[in-house]
Amino acid sequence: MLTIDPKEVTTAKLQGYLQSAIGPRPIAFASTLDKKGKPNLSPFSFFNIFSANPPILVFSPARRVRDNSIKHTLLNCEETGQVVINVVNFDIVQQVSLSSTEYPEGVNEFLKSGLTLRYEFLPKNYFSATANYARVERDLFNEGRIFENTKSGYMVGYGIDTFLGPIEINHTWSPDHSENYWYFNVGYWF
User: Which CATH number describes the domain made up of 1-103?
Assistant: First the structure.
């Protein structure tokens, strides 16, 4: 049996022991706004149900282990008193991974991760927006210029949820070329 004295190991090593004891862990995808209304999005593995009566979900935006700094999510929660907990599924794993990058304060992880923002302005009526960024070249990682010469594309749209499923109209464009397109979606794919 392994006995660990928390006073005799580093915080990083202790965190590793604790995480390996509880697994697999669900992931909380926490979205917050700062006091100026700028969004923040970040995944947290320190997340679980705490109680059913009263219903309580707990997530811990713990300090960063490497430098003990406070995460933007916690700062936003303290400023506004609000957080939305989203649950991660397989369809958005890549976007969750992209949002976990430590961007400077004020950077919109919704845009960086390529997720679609949806704003319901009336029941079943919503506006949506998406941004995608990419860089495709040979020897991308060997050259060390990952963030240079990126390409981008954008989409804005309107949708309504009906008995047929969602009906959406979207407009897409890119500043990298003159082409733009309109897309119309009706109902579910069967």
Answer: 2.30.110.10
Is pLDDT above 60 for 111? yes
Q: What is the pLDDT of residues 130-159, one digit of tens each?
A: 777 665 555 555 555 555 666 778 889 999
Identify whether the C-beta of residue 59 lies closer than 8 Å to the C-beta of residue 73: no
* Distance (Å, whole) CA 135 – CA 144: 12
Q: In the chain, which segments carry CATH 2.30.110.10? A: 1-103
Q: Is this model's pTM higher than 0.70 or not? A: no
Return d(Cα 12, Cα 62) in angstroms, integer: 12
The dihedral built from the CA positions of residue 153, 158, 161 and 162, taken in this order, carries a sign that is negative
Beta bridge partners of 130: 155
- Residues 137, 138, 143, 144, CA torsion sign: positive
Is residue 18 helix, strand or coil?
helix
Reduced to 3 states, what is the DSSP secondary structure of residue 95? helix
How far apart, in Å, are the Cα atoms of 98 and each of 65, 83, 133, 144? Answer: 20, 20, 11, 18
Give the model's pLDDT for residue 149: 66
Q: CA separation (Å) from 178 to 54, 136, 170?
A: 55, 20, 17
Quote the mean pLDDT of the chain: 81
Please tell me what DSSP assigns to residue 190: -
Query: Two tokens at 43?
Result: 């995944």
